[in-house]
Amino acid sequence: MHRNLDQFIKFLQIPSISLDTAAVNKALDYILDYFSDIKDKLNIHTFYCNNKRSLLITPEAQRFNKLKIILNGHADVVDAPIEFFSPKIKGDKIYVRGDYDMKGGLFAGMIAFKKLIKANNNLPIGLQVVPDEEIGGFDGTLCQLKKGVRSQFMVALEPSNLNITIAAKGVLWIEVLAHGKAAHSGYPWNGQNAIKILVDFINALDKHFPNPTKKAWQTTYNLSQISTPNKTMNKIPDKAILKVDIRYVPSDKTKLEELFMQIRDKMPIDLNYLMFEPAFHTSTQDKYIKALVDVLKTNHPTFKYEKRHGSSDVRHFAKYEIPGIEFGPTGFGSHQADEYVEWSSILELAKILEEWILKVV
Ligand SMILES: [Zn+2]
Question: Cys-Cys crosslink for 137: which of 141, 193, 230, 275, Cβ 3.0 to 4.6 Å?
Fold first, then answer.
């Protein structure tokens, strides 16, 4: 077996589910061990937020607030039974939980980083390894940014089939509390049904942001939960609660905020933002992207630009106005039982990253 593949398989066998801090720490230790032969050339910056450990590995002489490029990878994976962590190799494909999303991309970053630092231990680059992307990235990537980590550009090594993801939707979670008036069911004119108020709210939302029936770069919403504390059949409920998960395109942010302001004035509701995370959109004219395109033209000329409907840690960098992309290996099935990554694309990705970094730093 290829030595790198052998090492990769060991990495995949660690069941580093986001909420299992001990297992995620094992994955981080594995990475430190991978770099042990060049550790005298490195500066390992360790960060903690809410007892979650993350790493930023840089060349020894580099300061973490003045890097040019950060390669970002999450070592955590989504929940799965233990048998999902036994890799099965079929030709070029490796089937196992979390290899496409995203130990494969992270491992490519590790290969490239090691090779680059072995040749020149003064490059202004960092390898950022975080423990919690799948549960929001607040104690990993955002924690490091809050503590002063900065770069001119970043790459999240998320699965992208060697395409360049230049944009992703933002996430807005809202909670709507409807205030009606209780009355006997037989006398509806004496009350105001709180569930009916929520129906009116849903209709207003749908009028402005109807869900597309097929894949489209449009704002969408999901009615995630609806409930009422009312337990009585013959009573008009005076309280009802709705939770909505909205995924918005960058240009709709203001329109959404304005709509909710208007609705708050018109309807007997309280509307709270539970989470409001930015979208990102990086220009294809960015010099780092242009240089990557040059490298791809010779190495992988079929690449495309893509926009993603889910979010990633790139959005945390967007909060600090640091442009970024998602760029990772080929495979299929993030978060699914039949997830796989193609080993050859990991080696290809490592080579592309190496060439690109030498071009731009
Ligand atoms: Zn991911």
Answer: 141
Residue 231 near residue 242 (C-beta atoms within 8 A): no
Please give the distance, rounded to the nearest whole angstrom, from the Cα atom of residue 191 to the centre of ligand 1.
Answer: 48
pLDDT in tens, 154-196: 999 999 999 999 999 999 999 999 999 999 999 999 999 999 9
Q: Prior bond to 275 cis, omega within 30?
A: no
Distance 355 CA to ligand 1 centre (A): 24
3-class DSSP state for residue 6?
helix
State pLDDT tens for residues 297-349.
999 999 999 999 988 999 999 999 999 999 999 999 999 999 999 999 999 99
For the chain, percent helix, then strand, then coil, each to nearest 5?
40, 30, 35
Dist. CA 356–CA 129, nearest whole Å: 20
Residues within 5 Å of ion ligand 1, judged at the Cβ atom: 101-102, 158
Q: Do 11 and 33 touch, CB atoms closer than 8 A?
A: no
Query: Is-contact 331 157, C-beta < 8 A?
Result: no
User: How close is the Cα of 134 to the center of ligand 1, in Å?
Assistant: 6
The CATH classification number of 3-168+280-360 equals 3.40.630.10
Residue 163: Cβ within 10 Å count:
19
Confidence bin at 73 (pLDDT 50/70/90): very high
Cα Rg, the chain, nearest whole Å: 23
Sorted by where each begins, the domain ranges of the chain are: 3-168+280-360, 170-277
Residue 272: half-sphere exposure toward Cβ, Cα within 13 Å: 7
* The CATH classification of domain 170-277, taken from the options 2.40.50.140, 3.30.70.360, 3.30.390.60, 3.90.660.10: 3.30.70.360
Using CA atoms, how far apart are residues 293 and 276, in angstroms rounded to an integer? 32
Nearest to 153 by CA among 279, 355, 327, 35: 327
Q: What is the pTM of this model?
A: 0.91
